[in-house]
Structure formats: C-alpha cells, structure tokens
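From the pipeline queue, job 12 of 40. The input is one protein chain; the requested action is below.

Action: predict structure.
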Amino acid sequence: MKKAILPSGLRVLTQKIEGTKSVTVLILAKAGSRCETRDIRGLSHFLEHMFFKGGEKYPNTKAVSEAIDSIGGEFNAFTGKEYVGYYVKVASNHKDLAMDVLADMLITAKLDQKEIDKERGVILEEYNMYQDTPMYQVGWDFEKLMFGDQPMGWDQIGLKEVINKLGHDDFVKYKNELYRPDNLVVSVAGDVSHDELVAAVGEKFKMEAGETDFAWQPVTPNDSEDRVILQKKKTEQGHVVVGVPGYPESHDDSMAMKLLAIILGGNMSSRMFLNVREAQGLAYYIQSSTDDYTDVGVISTRAGVDLNRVDFAVEAICKEYADVRDNGVSEAELQRAKDYLKGKMVLKLEDSEEYAHLLAKYEVLYKKARTPESVVELVERVTIDDIARISKEIFQEDKLYMAGIGPWDDKERFAKLLKV
C-alpha cells in the first residue's frame, strides 16, 4: 500500500493487485449519520443519493450513469454511521473516467431543489421498504435500544417528517462542512500505478485546502432501564436480536470479540447454528456478529424464529452466551475461527472494491490505513485466555438487550428470558 497527501489535504491510497485488469476508485467521507443533528436526521443518506443527480460535466443522472454503463463499469454508494462511500469499478484503462465522474459528482454537485423534491419520493419508498423488511429493521431497533436517542442510536434512513422538509440549503451546508479534502480519502486498488494515479487525482480533484471544523459528539451513556424493544407486526416469522455492549474497533480486544462472534454464530459450523438451528430447529437464519465503531461496539445474535417457539429461541441464544462465558472455548475452536476469518479475508481481497474499502476505512476514521498483513497479525495474537476473559466481561445478565419484531407487545415476557 502506498499513500500520498495532496497540497489540499486530500489523502490518496493505492494498492497494486497483481493479475487483475480492473480497478476500483473509492471515495470515503467521514460524514455518516452520526454527524447529524435531530433536525437533519437522514440528510447523510439523502445527500448520497443527490450526488448521483449530476454536476457540471455530467449534468444529470442519465449522463452520470451512461458514462459508467458505456464502459461496462459498476458504481454505487453507501451510507454508514461513521462514513459514506462512493465507488466506481472499471477496466483499468478506464480509471481516469471513473475518477472524472466521481470528482464531478462530489465537487460540483448541483443539489437542485427540483431534483431534491423528486428524490424525496425515492427516499421515502426506501424508508417503507426497510419498514417492510423486519430482518433489517430489527437491527436498527436494537441499536436504538442500546444507544438511546442520540446519533449513534439513530438509523441512517432518518425520519419521514425530516426527510419531507429538507431543502437545498441544508444539503449545501452539510456538504460544505464535511465534504472537504482533509475529511476525504481516495482509495484505488487493482491494476494501478501509484505515481500516475496520484497525479491524476491531483488533476481531477481540484479542491481548496482547509481544515474540517466538525467533530461528532461522543456517545453518552444510555440511562434507560429498558432492556427490550418490540415492534408489534403481523409476520409469519419472528425476528429477534439478542446482544450486549462490546468493544470499540480501536480497543485491544476488538479482534478477540470478532473471533468470539465467529465461534458463536459466524458460520454453519458455529455453536448457534448447530445448537439452536440444527439441533433444536428454533430458527431459520441465525448469525452472531459485531458492530465495531470508533468508540463503542456491540456483539449480538440475530435470528428468524418460529412465532410459537420464540421464547425457547431467546433462551437458547442466552444459553450459548452463558456456556462460552462459563466454560470457554477450545484451542481447536479458536483456530478454526482464525482460519475462517483469514480465509474470508483472502477471498474478499481478490475483489479490488473490498481492498480499496479496507484501506480507506481505517484511513478516514483513524488516519492510519490497515493492511491485510496487520489484520492477520492481530488475529494470530488472540488466545483462548483472551476469549475467556472477554466472555466473562461482556456476557453479564444486566448487560443483555433484545429487540424483536413480530406479533408481540409484552416486553416483560421477554425481559424475563434474558438470563445468563
């Protein structure tokens, strides 16, 4: 991996991947939904959509899409809580065009009020889609329960009443505050030459230097005593998330927590899959995972469950938490989790998009890119004693939370099941 910082403060990362003729150009902005205030909830995601409405050189959605479609490229964007990404993946001989389109979108975006009004309907339909997709919505409900009424507890899609009133000035103000060169990272992976790429970025991303005068607020403790959040809905399958607060990504035990999640429910040979799904038939899908942010973290298990056996499913998940806390894991289990994580990383990094994302994420959040080699080093350091120690720290009864979507409204019923 190579890095350059342009006079404007824009950081450029490149990674040459041998044996590929493609390249991904990815732009990350430290500008996710965590940067919002109550009166602009959903603006980060809405702005992501508006960038595709065109700028000066590519003046509308048709021109933007045709530029990439005409060369067989792929382009998309995403909004997270702590950063937003825009990428184009093309044959390497078209990388200049990819950068040209992205630079025009992000720097000269029109943010026309008529287009805002039209896209508002699209955003509201996306909002409705998530409301009608419980396996997604339940995860957002869980974070709302965990973190409370503050940006980290808000979902990226926002609120209908806010989406309906956002206007041109709101978008311009937010863009000018956060889409500044020192708050952006250009990450390019694939068939690329570092020096040539840096020169091309400098030519296309003409931005004035200046420091971003913005910092998100730290997460404050959630003083609510609620441990269960339910959304009553007529469904054929119940959807639950059961979990506890964990470690932020920068914590020394963050990697141990990732491996613990794999052991618990990261794949088809995990404890949750074998004991809750296969042995008892309590769930169709079941998966344990971590959410790793800069200063907070979560480890949780989500499952789609039989409506008539949801109590047994929640109890079974809690039992697995208690078992790993009280009895630990074997060396063989930990080694399988390590090999699984490393193997998945190798497969992902054959894709230039994934490689560009890996480099850019850590650069934009921590100003220090993380390489695959450094990830492997962190994985290898974790011991079964580390797993035992963190399991005892995090799996405590008063730290358990649950979100559920299904035909239920008795929170106390489920609160009684949260026992380890």
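Job complete. The chain has a mean pLDDT of 95.
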